[in-house]
Amino acid sequence: MEEGMEMDMKQYQVTDPEFVKYGRVINGYDLSGLLAEMEKTPLPEDVAYVGSVPELETLPEAEELAEGIYGQMPIQIGYCNGHNRKLNALEYHRDSEIDVAVTDMVLLLGWLPDVEPDHTLDTATIKAFYVPAGTMVELYGTTLHYAPCQTDERGFRCVIVLPRGTNEELKRKPEVHCGEEKLLTAVNKWLIGHAEGGLPEGSFLGLKGENLTV
Prior knowledge:
Elements: E1 11-13, E2 23-26, H1 32-38, E3 47-50, H2 54-57, H3 60-68, E4 75-82, E5 89-92, E6 97-101, E7 105-111, E8 121-122, E9 127-131, E10 136-139, E11 143-144, E12 156-163, E13 184-186, E14 189-193, E15 207-208
Parallel strand pairs: 1-9, 8-15
Antiparallel strand pairs: 2-10, 3-4, 4-12, 5-14, 6-10, 6-12, 7-9, 7-11, 13-14
């Protein structure tokens, strides 16, 4: 068993009732072109996130998702690929994120109302959800998430759809008023890190408890 593994952490399915407060499974879209194009994307030994990939955004699926899921908002389509079994951090946005599992993967999810007034979160509140390959899920704006976890040594590939501009570099550091501003690390990205997560210096390290392992 891998060192640090959470032995009694239950793994749910995204079709289980427990997923309802975090998001939903979306059916009815033909994702074959998107899945095929994703097979051409890199699969590094660590984790790589690319927010906007022209080859994905010019597919017919891109227009369909912008129209039907995001209500004609401008969107970006990218990916998060690699090898990962750790929690390391959690982030959230002011809107839903669409994830398409190209491979089987596991999402470690938290819930924004569980975050304490000082912006810390106990990792004991986090749940693990198995997402089968080919499944598209919506993660609500109140769902804390980060890089997916692999289910085997081959790693994972995941399509990431967000409103355009999300995760781009901040134009300036925001003034601190309510305290949440110190979590803002990119455009539309609030991040709560773990001390063992290997995050850049200056990141807000508010995850308390074990750095969970899948």
